[in-house]
Amino acid sequence: MELARWAEIPQSPACLHMRFDSSSPSGPITDALCANCGLCCDGSLLADVELAGRREADRMEALGLEVEEGDDEGRDLCLLPLPCAALRGTRCSIYPHRPETCRTFECRLLKDALAGRVSLAEARGVIEETRSLARRLGELVEAVGEEEGGGTLAERVHEAMGAVAEPEIRKEQRERFAVFEALVRERFLDD
Question: Does the pLDDT at position 106 exceed 80?
Fold first, then answer.
């Protein structure tokens, strides 16, 4: 299905209600941070996105995205694996049509910025530091001959560590990844 035809598919009232409203007080902060981050979409923070059901999964498939079936304690799930194929740089190429979970997700850093606990400049610095660490981990993965881009960052780093014979490189990967994981837990993910 072409993207133009996707706009003709009726959306549930809940999806319309959760649309980004640029007139809301949080709009400028959300736009300034989220549109320049992408860590929740690129596999750095999360492994997948739980879709709101089969209808939403069908919409994502119609947009050309892969949807996986899962099971959580007997409950059927539709999951969008990350990194998301709709991510272009740090921006969502299907933003008006993104899943409900993506519409409502707020990382801890965004919540802290919206509440005034973190300045916009500090939040941007945290994003840049985290993206820089992620790039360096990606470079380590590439240095040992693993393919960049397949699976979450954690999966790629763990695979690369298993492929490395030199203890010094494994130690460097483990140390960098530990710093990255601590930063992600502390600044982006809720307890």
Answer: yes
3-state secondary structure the chain: CCHHHHCCCCCCHHHHHCCCCCCCCCHHHHHHHHCCCCCCCCCCCCCEEECCCHHHHHHHHHCCCCCEEEEECCEEEEEEECCCCCEECCEECCHHHCCHHHHHCCCHHHHHHHCCCCCHHHHHHHHHHHHHHHHHHHHHHHHCCCCCCCCCHHHHHHHHHHHCCCHHHHHHHHHHHHHHHHHHHHHCCCC
Pairing relationship of beta strands 87-88 and 91-92 according to DSSP bridges: antiparallel
Q: Give the model's confidence band at 150: pLDDT under 50 very low, under 70 low, under 90 confident, else very high.
A: low
Phi, psi angles (nearest 5°) of residue 61 = -65, -35
Query: What integer pLDDT is reported at residue 145 of this predicted model?
Result: 67
Q: What's the sign of the alpha-carbon dihedral 84, 87, 90, 94?
A: negative
Of 33, 35, 46, 36, nearest to 113 by C-alpha is: 33
Structure confidence at residue 7 as a pLDDT band (50, 70, 90): very low
Contact 163, 173 (CB under 8 A): no
Residue of 144 and 63 predicted with greater confidence: 63
**Which residues, 6+ apart, have CB-to-CB distance to 53 below 8 Å?**
78
